[in-house]
Fold each of these.
Amino acid sequence: MWIVKSRPEDFIVVEDINLPSDGAGYHLYFLKKSGRTTLAVVKELYRRYEMKKGDIHFAGMKDRDGVTYQYISSVKDMGRHVKATTYEMWHIKDVTSHVDRKSLRGNYFSLLIRGAISIDTAVLSSGFVNYFDYQRFAVFSEGMAARLILKRQYKEALWTLLTPGTRSLIKEPFDVEDFRECRKLSRTPWERRLFDFLRRKGPKYKEALRYVDGDQRAISMLAYQSYLWNKTVSKLIEHYGEDIRYIDVAGQQLAVARNVRVSYKVPFITWFLAEEWWDLPEDVRQAIKEVLEEEGFAELFELKTKVHGYTLVLRYRNMIEQPNIIANVASKDGVKLVFFLPTGSYATMYVKQLAVYHDEMVQVGDGEQGAQ
């Protein structure tokens, strides 16, 4: 069995971005963290330096597990060197603009894969299928809030959007609509505001959605679109792939292949303008229709939604990506792979697909079983 992320130092990520121009206006920092998400560190910095949301920008979310390095920009000077238990950062220079998502070129990864004796990266001759991995879906183990919103099941959607800590405490009072008790047991300020609203207005769950934390709203919609994207691409791989096998991602059985005969830019499923829809290859349109039917949506227009800030965005993502391999070195501890991936691709997904064609299982961290 291959083991990834056994220790933080086994999984190192270094961000590659286009840096903003030198000049006055903002402060550029290089952030090292471990055991925390990017968002968690940024929220702590807001509190520590008395800043408001939006005063710190970053180009991409980095994994909680492992050791990650990335750039952030701030409106406030936080000092030359900042050190805390789970993160450390250094002031690089003053710049004329914030870093943002468009700045990001990709990430360098250094992975120690324990249990591996040797790895032949050429087994994936056309590259790997660029699926979203389990990290995108982990916080929505109770269900996809976006699907429930689209189905107008607002109470159920609201439940999935609550934090896991709050859900663990309030199941019974939430079921019987005891909002006073829910408010008392809630773990975050926004959840308390949400239950204050329900206590005053009654079970108006659709309106209550506006009180959900903005980041949680955005992540919920992206998680569902990522789920639909994975399903769509899996159908295309089944049609165009050679030596097809399957991996499990958050309960989905997704097709992978040694070689794929086409490589499309596949859109996130949402409401398309007519010209956008007809510009898609016919087989991509057909795969999207099949996925929507399986999800219980009779027509594409059912995905056109804007419920208190919950929106489905239109983006395109490469179906296949080819890593740039920098090093592949075997040792007594395992195999160290060093490679570059473009923005948005998952190193764990690449390793899982390599494992499939080495007839290996792969364990990520403390038990996520990827390839089989």
Amino acid sequence: MTLLTKFWEDNHNLAYPEDWAEGNTYTNSFVIPTYMLAIGHPELPGGGEELQYAVWDSVVDTIQEWTGQKLQPSSLYGIRVYKEGAILAPHVDRLPLVSSAIINVAQDVDEDWPIEVIAHDGKAHNITMKPGDLVLYESHSVIHGRPFPLKGRYYANVFIHFVPETSDENELPTYMVPGSLYAMDWMKENNKIPKEQGDLLENRAAHLAADAGEMDKLRRIAEFSRGDLDAADSNGWRPLHEAARAGRVEVIRFLLDNGADLNTRTWEGAGGSALYWAMQNHGEDHPAVQLLKEQGARNLKPAW
């Protein structure tokens, strides 16, 4: 706490207005702006990565003992400063399995400004913090906020977030679903995965998106590599087969425009073609069947 207090005392006049996304409802910043003092900023006296990790290290043992899990840092933005009239709407944090801590760094208030927490028993609890106090909470599952307007000049907090530690450098965080587009993006951004495994994740994501008719996801996958839109899974199924079986006309057209093989068969060449699966599931008059026929598709039946 001494490091944070010193950093606050040396730099509090350098806090800058936070740039919340349009439509944000977490705070009433459109009326009462919040301010951020970035503790990771190396040009601020006492700031930088060294201070960030010192703050994480100061609480990790306590929060690991509380959760019973081995944790790793998730995010630590800085000291958020609320001004008179500010509120923090009740909410949960976006990512699952996030365990968090709040440190009250400084305040100048006319009355207490408690954080309201809706516990797992459904009951509301108001927790009053003084400078130097630490509160632990499951920010992904427990509704929390400060719904009553602040009465005073300012209230300065640090929010410290952790996620469960993964056991392998190439392993997904435990809150991500393997094969999801979110998992694929995370792996690419963090360079955490061998190419072969990355290809598999991409293929599965394309298959799921094709089956569900999720065009936005397919366009994003195409940005990485157009060829992935025609890659086979372990059963020889390609996104075009999934789209045909689901009757996704727009997806079929998109995949063909991006180089999908019209007449490839499932099961390593022993299964059915896209036209076969479309006809089996939707009949000859379905628009998906008509589109495939117009493109020259062949009705290739399974060999068994």
Amino acid sequence: MRVVKYIRDPVHGYVPVTEAELKILDTFPVQRLRGIRQLSIASLVYPGADHSRFSHALGSMHIAGQIVGSLRGHVEISGEEEQMVRIAALLHDIGHGPFSHSFEEVMVEKKGVNHEDMGRRVVKESELADVLGSLGFSPQEICELAFGKTGGRKRYLKQVIASQVDADKLDFLVRDSYYTGVEYGRVDVSRLVQAMGVVDENISIDLKALYALEAFMIARYEMFLAVYYHHAVRAAEIMLYKAMINGDEFLNLTDFRTVEDFLRMDDAYLMTRLRELCRSGPDDERVAVV
């Protein structure tokens, strides 16, 4: 893999980007993530928590590459496999709707699909499929890495993205901690990554990094208490959920038939549609449901 660009990130410093990754970053489905907040409306409680799914995707890709580098000391991983893992990490949240998990709850209730189901569709049915194909990568194989089950041959590659200690969790803990100003999520990412190996096709962590692993587990627990399930954050998310679930009857938020319809929605789009309902007039039944 040849690095063609470095992107400055406040959490990880300079993130190297390859030519293939740059082309994927420039697609609309990935750029759309700039308009979706990582922590939904947690910024009502933590004003600094306005960071996007885009920055998290970039950070996850970076850590995924570091993990692959560490695993290479134990198993043979080709450059193509490394690139595929990094791309899968970049796209692992591509199926999120506006306000992330808040809208996902609505999708699950109304359509029976989650963000991973939508992620598969976006990778296979949007311009991403054409871009991946032109770069020599199979959209199906990328989906298997990004959203598939963690079993099977070379399952350690999938576990880079989805496991107890993966690139996704390592990034969102330190990133969410940084932007909320909460100290609990500060974990020693580099120590955990350096301690990773492979045992029986599964990712393992050296016992010498036990303290770092314990700190990671405690940090995750504390972040759920202090941020993700903060009482005021949850109250705001529940109100947003009820506005979406009730307003869906008139706004048809979950009535998207194509991937393009889904990708049209980001945080600003949803808030604009909800505000339009509120401007309908006090006697309009649509206002009552929101």
Amino acid sequence: MLSENLKKYRKEKKLTKMELSRQANVSVRTIEHIEYNKTTNPKIQTLQKLSNTLNVAVEDLLK
């Protein structure tokens, strides 16, 4: 599930939400909405930014 995977990979990289936000150029609010499962359909551009920053495939985030 996206929410769990994003949180898992973020923590594996030892990044706070703020740090991930800055590095991926995605708002903290967007990251929180994904991690707390408040959004079920984020933009593909957002997923690409997050996956690139976390060095994982978009598919791995979506598993």
